[in-house]
Amino acid sequence: MRITLRQLAVFEAVARSGQVAKAAEQVNLSPPATSMALAELEKQLNARLFERIGNRLQLNSQGNLLLPLATDLLHRVEQIEQAFTYHGGDLVGRLSVSASSTIGNYLLAKAAVAFCQQHTQTHVDVAITNTQDVIQAVAQFRSEMGFIEGYCTDNRLHVEAWHKDRLLVFCHPAHPLAGKVVTPAAVKGQSWVLREEGSGTREYFVNAANELDMRPEAKFCFTTPDAIKLAVKQGAGLGVLSELALDKDVSRKELALVTIEGLVLERQFYRITHKSRQATSLGQAFVAFCENFFNITAETE
């Protein structure tokens, strides 16, 4: 058997993109050469790795078995190349990270820029989406690690506690509940502006609110904190977001807080990685950098 790294790279690219043409762009081959490399790999293994569904190629059981092994091997080779590439002793390489909205926009974006400014031969790609999409990105090996606000029950992934956060209920400054402490019954029937389904922020808030029988109904749903804040500023109803997203708006008195008795909205952030994927030295360095970066930022604010 003579499996090559090129064949494995082609296989991984097809697995991620679902299409030979897109995979060909990623591995710098022509589509015919990409198809040939994939066919040769399947011949070497004496197994089909994909099933065609419409115009896409989807991993079958054999492909799902190979993917974590191929990804791990390719990353080990990348680590070897990085270890013997001289860049003044500094880190080098590209890191793919996924983060849910609050973490990505208010924590990781700043950290990624600062990290790459310190380590000029690196690049950190931060894909910002919702919790469920982050989980899928890590599970499908599109990201080395993910940072989420919601819960993860995927048994393929390792989950560890990361930073903590607090959600706040807010409204237009002219709203009747602005700046008040109210009972859960007082907000029943209110219009809410919430994140979309699949959002960790929404999931955490709705679960906590339902424990107090608030039963919040979303009149409007948006995928970004800025859209939610804008809607609330227009009088669309009550909103709920991380305090990270509200600090400036509240201090400028463009939004007002509402305190609901018994509603505890302190939550845990999590970092997730695939159990079958070994962490790269670049990934480990980024995690360590973030810990120090956020501690320093918190002390100076």
From TrEMBL:
User: Which residues constitute the signal peptide according to the record?
Assistant: none
Q: Which domain of life is it from?
A: Bacteria
Keyword Transcription regulation attributed = yes
PROSITE patterns with a match to the protein in the record: HTH_LYSR
Domain (HTH lysR-type) ranges: 3-60
Keyword annotations for this protein? DNA-binding, Transcription, Transcription regulation
Which Gene3D superfamilies does the UniProt entry name for this protein? Answer: Periplasmic binding protein-like II, Winged helix-like DNA-binding domain superfamily/Winged helix DNA-binding domain
Q: Which parts pass through the membrane?
A: none
Q: Which PANTHER family match?
A: HTH-TYPE TRANSCRIPTIONAL REGULATOR, LYSR FAMILY TRANSCRIPTIONAL REGULATOR
Q: Which family does it belong to?
A: Belongs to the LysR transcriptional regulatory family.
Protein name as annotated: LysR family transcriptional regulator
Q: Which organism is it from?
A: Shewanella glacialipiscicola
Taxonomic placement: Bacteria, Pseudomonadati, Pseudomonadota, Gammaproteobacteria, Alteromonadales
